[in-house]
Structures are given as structure tokens and as C-alpha cells.
Amino acid sequence: xxxxxxxxxxxxxxxxxxxxxxxxxxxxxxxxxxxxxxxxxxxxxxxxxxxxxxxxxxxxxxxxxxxxxxxxxxxxxxxxxxxxxxxxxxxxxxxxxxxxxxxxxxxxxxxxxxxxxxxxxxxxxx
Length: 126
What we know:
Elements: E1 9-19, E2 23-24, E3 28-29, E4 33-46, E5 50-58, E6 66-67, E7 73-75, E8 86-91, E9 97-106, E10 109-120
Antiparallel strand pairs: 1-10, 2-9, 3-9, 4-8, 4-10, 5-6, 5-9, 7-8
């Protein structure tokens, strides 16, 4: 049986909203996770919006956030996000906390939201 559902957990990483500025998502605690990937959906882009995606990492989840090195991240997102698209970002680093970072280089706004999908070291409750 191909049952991915029973072997993964998902939590909100960036609340879906009209984003008019650079913003950071929720700190995702990787304690007890075997790996994490982020799925980001975009909607309309207004005013020639120039937004990008990256990941940040931290030891404690409240401070000391730094950009994840390129060799510790997989990213299908282009430099400028497109309207009505879905992107994947994978984290291969060693810090306990990681979060999405939506960057803005120009324009008005973008509709965006994201979820963290991970494989718990213990199976999630049904």
C-alpha cells in the first residue's frame, strides 16, 4: 500500500495572506523529526511584486536566525515568485529550528502561504 498520509505530519509554516512586505514564518521545531520540507502556494501578485523564498535556521527558535547555506537547502522557487504556483524547499541542516523567509525586492504584494511537512521519528496519531 502506498500510504504516505500515515507517515508524515504537517503544520502551518506561513499563514496564507496577502503579503505586502518581507516576512518570516513560524519557527518549526525539528526535535523528533527525521527531515522537513516546505510547500508554498502563491496566488495573485500585485504591482509587479518581486518576492522570493529562502529558509532561516536557529538554535533556539527565538533569536540568532541566519540564512541557510545553499548546500543545506533544496529549493524549486525562482528568484522572483510567480502567481498561482507551488514551490518546494527542503532543509538538510543541523539546527533545531527552521522557518520560511519571504523576501521582497519590490512591487506591491503577493498572496502566499506555506506548510512544513515532516517525517516524525515516531508515527503521528491517526
